[in-house]
Amino acid sequence: MTRRFVEVVKYLIMSEAVSSKTEIGLLMNQPLQVVSKLLTGQRIITLEQTQKLILNTNINAHWFITGEGLMLEDQSSSVKESKMAYYISGNRSSKAIAAMLPLVSDLEERIEDLKKENENIKEQLSGLENSMDRLKKEKASTDLPSKNSP
Asked: Which value, to the nearest 10 degrees, does the dihedral of the CA atoms of residues 131, 136, 137, 140 take?
């Protein structure tokens, strides 16, 4: 959960939902020192801190706790808002980038899952190829004419 907390903090700051870690502490009713220790992994986020963070942001509770699903409750509207902010702001694209961070994070996790699945499939394929080779050798040895045959 520490990794997801770090992702949330990055997202909130990049999207300009908050301007500092101090504001994150205010959302959680915690001092800056606690937020800093949570970010470095020196402390583990409590249920109460998690609850306050989730209640005061659009972070998806299921994602925050399990890592499954999307980071934001309503990710599609955030992406739309960020695209609009990007076009309106000209050079200031931090909101657009911030809104895309959860999507990128979700895609990275999906890529890792697909890599593992790919490795499993490769192992299965290798096993099947070995089995086929054994069967071919067995068949070839049984198909050989015996020396006693006419």
From this structure: 160
Report the DSSP beta bridge partners of residue 59.
Answer: 72
And the tokens for 21? 């870690």
Given CA atoms 21, 55, 108, 104 in this order, what sign does their dihedral have? negative
The DSSP secondary-structure symbol of 46 reads: P
Residue 72 forms part of a structural domain = yes
- Asked if the structure places residue 75 within a domain, the reply is yes
This prediction's pTM: 0.50
CB atoms under 10 Å from CB of 32, counted, come to 14
Count of beta carbons in the 10 Å neighbourhood of residue 87: 10
pLDDT in tens, 9-64: 888 888 878 888 888 888 888 898 999 999 999 999 998 999 888 888 888 889 88
Q: Which domain holds residue 62?
A: 2-106
Distance separating alpha carbons of residues 134 and 123, to the nearest angstrom: 17
> Is residue 135 in a domain?
no
User: Residues 41, 47, 52, 57: what is their CA dihedral angle, to the nearest 10 degrees?
Assistant: 70
Residue 13 lies in a domain: yes
3-state secondary structure of 140: helix
Number of domains in the chain: 1
